[in-house]
């Protein structure tokens, strides 16, 4: 199933954006879904991950308190508030295997543990 992120754009520092990713075609609920980003010249990094049908959320330290990941039956969301220029990147949604809760941070910190990647959406934070 092809994941597709949307909702990116150009926003001023301090502004907000909401990203969406349709997940309704995924064959299983027992997976991890999450958001990753890649800035120019940098490696891809995990932003936030959530277990699709169970409790458990991970946030990277750099976005804690500013970003909120959520999901409903069909869609994954990333609400981004208080955006900073350092948040400028291409944002991707991705799927990975279900892990136990204690493994979620490790999974979300290592993009090699995710196996289904959607096309990204550009987020640019600039005045």
Task: Please describe what this structure looks like.
The chain is mainly β and 127 residues long. It is 4% helix and 44% strand. It has 1 helix and 11 strands, in the order E-E-E-E-E-E-E-E-E-H-E-E. The strands form 2 sheets. Strands 2, 4, 5, 6, 9, 10 and 11 form a 7-stranded mixed sheet that branches. A hairpin with a 5-residue loop joins strand 5 and strand 6 (57-59). The longest helix has 5 residues, at 104-108.
How are the SSEs placed, and which strands pair?
Blueprint: E1 5-6, E2 9-11, E3 17-22, E4 31-38, E5 45-51, E6 57-59, E7 67-71, E8 75-80, E9 89-97, H1 104-108, E10 116-117, E11 121-125
Parallel strand pairs: 2-11
Antiparallel strand pairs: 1-3, 3-8, 4-5, 4-9, 5-6, 7-8, 9-10, 9-11
Cα gyration radius (Å): 13 Å
Reported for the largest beta sheet, the result is: 7 strands, mixed
Contiguous runs where pLDDT drops below 50 for at least 5 residues? none
String of helices and strands: EEEEEEEEEHEE
> Strand pairing plus helix content: what structural class?
mainly beta
Our count of helices gives: 1
Overall geometric form: globular
Helix content: under 10%
State the total count of DSSP E strands. Answer: 11
Task: Tell me the distance between the termini.
Answer: 37 Å
The fraction of residues assigned to DSSP E strands is: 35-45%
| Mean pLDDT value | 93
